[in-house]
Amino acid sequence: MIEEISTVSYIGAGTMGCYNALAAALSGYRVVLYDVDQRTLAGVPERQREIAAMFVGAGFCKADDIPPALERVSIVADLVEATADADLVSESVFEQLELKREVHRELDAVCPPRAILTTNSSALRVSDIEDVVARGDRFAALHSHFGSPLVDIVPGPRTDPAVIEILRRYVLSVSGVPLILKKEHPGYLLNAMLGPVLRAGLALLVTGQATSEDVDRAWMSRRKAPMGPFGLMDYFGLNLILDTWLHGSGDAIQAALKPAVVELLQPMVERGDLGLKSGRGFYHYPEPTYQQPGFLDQAADLRPVYRTLETALIGSALYLAAQDVADPAEIDKAWTVGMTLDAGPFGLLAEMGCATFREALAEEVAAGRFHDQRARGVDSWLDQDER
């Protein structure tokens, strides 16, 4: 625990609220879980049992640690009561801008003046929300990744740097890995890199240049990864992947790919083939072929497939650096910690060499898989770095 924080209030008692609440309780904090939906509150004990089993299985804690942690968790149906003693508030309500703005407007009115308000939003910007609170100096994004210790910390336009330091130490106190962004960016760091890799895999599939299995083989064999892009999409849920293509904002490349990708994914979702959680997606579960012996054995040359995926990763990372969202070391940390892999995009760039990467990036731009404007920003950053 850190001295500035004793009680943490979680607003929204769904999966992420319960996940973060249990992590805090295991670290000794008093935790209050609140939700406007009584059915959601009624489901908290079952969700916490499932998350506790995951924590124990992952070695995050021992089974004996769970009962005393749960005793530190209160489930409260009244917002004023839930926040009366809060030093830190974490909001995890639905990803709807007006809803989040209204929730934080109310939190600002009822929380103690000392309380730090944070949003766990995965898509909305801090600056889109923070103008509704008087305490803009004590408002920031504190975004966690389910199943990963990675936590993004993003200041808003008025956030006091001392508050960011408190949040950094708080994340460390709950055994998290803090990543402080210099400024807002859609997808923070990890998703801003992973999204282009998944998109590159889908582009190769819908244009007939590779099968889903070969895309995964190419990635898994070169990166020593437990699964590839299509295995990851099954893990996340194909309904969520489809939703990002139907409703998410994107560039011209995404707009061009959208009809083919939706044509691929929509029938799968309508059939209920959602991936891991339904037992079938791009693979069949619980024993997907990518986990079977011999999956990585193949005769085809998959180097061009891997080069497309690797270029998408490195290019998106360099773009984050070019936009001054974070330093290269933090960007690499986001990837290696979030994906549990041994090398980040800047490490891969060092192995590939800048000249080879520039050639690969030009090929991806010509193939319509990497945005030309972003490529120019990447080239400009490389020019400055080389000088």
Q: What this model shows, in words?
A:
The structure is a single chain. The chain is an alpha/beta fold. The chain folds into 2 domains: 174 residues, Rossmann fold (3-Layer(aba) Sandwich); 199 residues, N-(1-d-carboxylethyl)-l-norvaline Dehydrogenase, domain 2 (Orthogonal Bundle). 53% of the residues lie in helices and 10% in strands. The protein has 17 helices and 8 strands. The protein has an 8-stranded mixed beta sheet with strand order 3-2-1-4-5-6-7-8, with helices on both faces. Strand 1, helix 1 and strand 2 form a beta-alpha-beta unit. Helix 1 packs across helix 3. The longest helix has 20 residues. It is globular, with a radius of gyration of 22 Å.
Secondary-structure map:
Blueprint: E1 7-11, H1 15-26, E2 30-34, H2 38-42, H3 44-57, H4 66-71, E3 73-76, H5 79-83, E4 88-91, H6 97-110, E5 116-119, E6 139-144, E7 150-155, H7 161-173, E8 177-180, H8 190-206, H9 212-223, H10 229-236, H11 238-247, H12 252-271, H13 303-322, H14 328-339, H15 345-352, H16 354-366, H17 372-386
Parallel strand pairs: 1-2, 1-4, 2-3, 4-5, 5-6, 7-8
Antiparallel strand pairs: 6-7
Strand content: 5-15%
In CATH's first tier, which class of the largest domain applies? Mainly Alpha
CATH architecture of the largest domain: Orthogonal Bundle
Q: Tell me, briefly, the overall form.
A: globular
How much helicity do the residues have?
Answer: 40-55%
Which sheet architecture does the biggest sheet show? 8 strands, mixed
Radius of gyration: 22 Å
List keywords for this structure.
about 375 residues; alpha/beta; Rossmann fold; N-(1-d-carboxylethyl)-l-norvaline Dehydrogenase, domain 2; 17 helices; 8 strands; about 10% strand
